[in-house]
Amino acid sequence: FSSAPHRLGFGSANPTGKIPLGLKRKGLRIVVTGGAGFVGSHLVDRLIARGDSVIVVDNFFTGRKENVMQHFGNPNFELIRHDVVEPLLLEVDQIYHLACPASPVHYKFNPVKTIISSSILENLDSINSTNVVGTLNMLGLAKRVGARFLLTSTSEVYGDPLQHPQKETYWGNVNPIGVRSCYDEGKRTAETLTMDYHRGAGVEVRIARIFNTYGPRMCIDDGRVVSNFVAQALRKEPLTVYGDGKQTRSFQYVSDLVEGLMRLMEGEHIGPFNLGNPGEFTMLELAEVVQETIDPDAKIEFRPNTEDDPHKRKPDIARAKELLGWEPKVALRKGLPLMVSDFRQRIFGDHKEGSN
Ligand code: NAD
Ligand code: UDP
Ligand code: UDP
């Protein structure tokens, strides 16, 4: 393996290897790429509240300034409009790398951009400083400044899983030429790059495999099932169930995810770790919970399913429980109302709140 690092320019490993634990709590400088998005902005809230200095790097493809506006004027907060496919020079201690279109509607919009944002363009032989992007740039940054790097990967690396529930040791069942591949394979490649920078250049890395997450600040029209159902019920439109509605997902409230990401970053284990709520629902069951929460009279309308839709998905979180001391605390029926009030406010505005 020793010649590969040379070819990739992996000459100098991080000289200290570790961020001294004693320095952790105070004065950390942290980059959150994708920090103006749904998950990123909640993470930023927690980091700022803890007293860290946070730099958000976001190109606003799906992120919104409103998500982080509460920190404008805070000297510990900075917002940079920047696309991670371009190199970035910063001095930081930790990098949370979230930047990537995340909903199927968004990531299919420009699939080539999706794969290069989250992984690399073309092939490894052509790696040099011109055609490498996204995750690679952030890993290059981590390597240069000796920062710890956390990748937000996804349960999609398991594809349409043949193992249920999914453990981190499962290698997955992904269609490499399908319409979801730009995302699935992009994240799989991002995991590969992350481990290669760890093995080859000594970068301290962490990998989270995030399962379906919901909560306030989700894009209202991102086409994801929870945002669709909630917006539809509030607007008195039918809930659109794709296929027969018997496919399953496991829905995690965003504060649980953020807690897991921070524990992972601060802990001693690389991962990958599944971060998700093992509570599993069919889409028809989810529709029922939305009906109970918003409008018992909401109608259900069946629509054709999308291509390559995974039939079921549920995390095995034994590893995160044991090594991070983490498990989700917010059940779907508790978390959904919190998201509903945010959506109600954004769809109807304050003045109409309560009228629906
Ligand atoms: P989001 O779309 O709300 O946030 C992504 C953010 O990244 C947005 O602010 C967007 O503007 C920004 N972005 C996209 N491409 C960029 C680029 N090239 N340069 C700079 N910024 C860019 O999505 P989210 O749900 O908050 O997801 C955050 C991360 O978590 C993503 O990496 C996603 O793949 C991962 N994830 C999310 C879920 C989930 O259910 N929400 C599940 C699995 C994995
Ligand atoms: N990079 C970056 N910021 C940095 C250091 C590197 O954006 O502070 C980018 C750099 O432009 C390159 C990528 O990260 O495209 C990988 O960097 P690395 O040093 O690992 O590879 P090399 O440049 O030697 O090919
Ligand atoms: N889905 C649905 N109705 C919608 C949107 C999605 O029934 O309005 C289904 C979709 O077919 C999939 C599941 O909900 O089986 C989760 O889809 P989502 O896009 O939220 O997430 P992902 O497929 O990435 O897990």
Automatic annotation (TrEMBL):
Its EC number is 4.1.1.35. The keyword Lyase applies. GO terms for biological process: D-xylose metabolic process. Keywords: Decarboxylase, Golgi apparatus, Lyase, Membrane, NAD, Transmembrane, Transmembrane helix. Pathway: Nucleotide-sugar biosynthesis; UDP-alpha-D-xylose biosynthesis; UDP-alpha-D-xylose from UDP-alpha-D-glucuronate: step 1/1. It is an enzyme of class 4 (lyase). It is found in: Golgi apparatus, Golgi stack membrane. Residues 32-337 form the NAD(P)-binding domain. GO terms for cellular component: Golgi cisterna membrane. Catalyzes the NAD-dependent decarboxylation of UDP-glucuronic acid to UDP-xylose. Necessary for the biosynthesis of the core tetrasaccharide in glycosaminoglycan biosynthesis. Belongs to the NAD(P)-dependent epimerase/dehydratase family. UDP-glucuronic acid decarboxylase subfamily. This is UDP-glucuronate decarboxylase. It comes from Hibiscus trionum.
